[in-house]
Amino acid sequence: MMESRPYRGRSARRLRTRISGVGLGALVLLLCASALPLRAQSGAENGQELLSASARKPQETQNTVAGSVFTLLNMAGTRTAKDFTPLDQHGRNRRFVRSLVNPLSFVRVGFSAGLDQWQNKPGEWAQGGEGYGKRYANIFGQYTIQRTASFGLGSVLDEDNRYFNSGKRGFFPRVWYAVESGVLARHQNGHRSFSFSQAGSVAAGAFLARLWLPPSQNKMSNAGISFALSTVGNMGGNIVKEFVPDIVRVFVHKRSGDR
Predict the structure, then answer these.
(1) d(CA 248, CA 201)
(2) How far apart are CA 185 and CA 87, in angstroms?
């Protein structure tokens, strides 16, 4: 029985890699699908009506999907840094509420809980529906704490943690911009500095979760590891955000050429 654990660990890592690839692919497809309605604007120069009443509903649905994806990723759409416009408090409030009720957020939480279920982490929660429910509640709680802390601190400190694409040329300059954006935020004047709201929200989620996690996961060292992994994960996620719009544009251009 003891010899099966290394094999199980390798199997779990392979599964996580495959599932992560599928999840990223699904995200790219969602963004690509949401960008397709932009091609309909080309007929405006001929004075024709862009959309009929019957065609408007599909576009609105796709735009809703795009908005949900961008809200989930905390992106400012496909805009670049030079297009930055500051958020007023009303805009902050609206984005915060949307982030909490975004249907894709619940899907992401369920996906993460499934990975923890596969790894049997934490072990005290065992398997089955009850164990999965606890893992789901744990991740949802951490996510809600992070979002709330980021909103509150960002409002007080005038920090905007939305991701704007760099608009830079070259692979490495863009990657570096994405990495440093994991710890930087913009202010009303567009200048970037260390994001206390970003760091504070990740820390809040990591450390406050120790209050309900079982003994195997409730130490301060566990919180520190969680904080570090979340910060690195945010940087990696920013790299994806930086290049996904390029994939969308290539896809849309190809579809336009086919027509």
Answers:
(1) 30
(2) 12
